[in-house]
Specification:
The chain is built from two helices and seven strands, in the order E-E-E-E-H-H-E-E-E. The protein is of the alpha+beta class. The protein has a single domain, classed as Nuclear Transport Factor 2, Chain: A (Roll). Strand 5 and strand 6 form a beta hairpin.
Length: 116
């Protein structure tokens, strides 16, 4: 079990002790953090994070391919995780959103959405 993190802070539960998350939520939390952190921003682990922030500098016709590359790069150390679907879309406020579906350990699928 891992501790639950919300907006970069540990979430407190009953009696102000840290909440814990199960295997699936732990996996989603780990994926989300790796995709949101800019690659190279965490000095102790320069390979941690993604380059998704570079999508705005990519030609629109190449963005989905680049997003796939950046996601796979960020999650390369997740050996049991396989990307099965990726959808890049624009939100109403003009920001980009990424919807991802993964197969974990060939047993079950997990989905996550993240803003870019």
């Amino acid at each position: 079990m891992e501790l639950k993190i919300t907006d970069g802070k540990y979430t407190l539960g009953t009696f102000r002790s840290p909440d814990e998350v199960g295997e699936t939520d732990e996996l989603l939390q780990r994926i989300g953090m790796k995709l949101k952190v800019r690659r190279g921003a965490f000095l102790p682990l320069p390979e941690y994070g993604s380059r998704l922030y570079l999508l705005s500098q990519t030609k629109p016709s190449n963005r989905e391919t680049a997003a796939r590359q950046y996601v796979l790069e960020a999650l390369a150390d997740e050996a049991d995780l396989e990307l099965s679907a990726l959808e890049l879309s624009q939100t109403s406020d003009g920001e980009a959103a990424l919807s991802l579906t993964f197969t974990y350990k060939n047993e079950y699928t997990v989905s996550i959405e993240t803003g870019i």
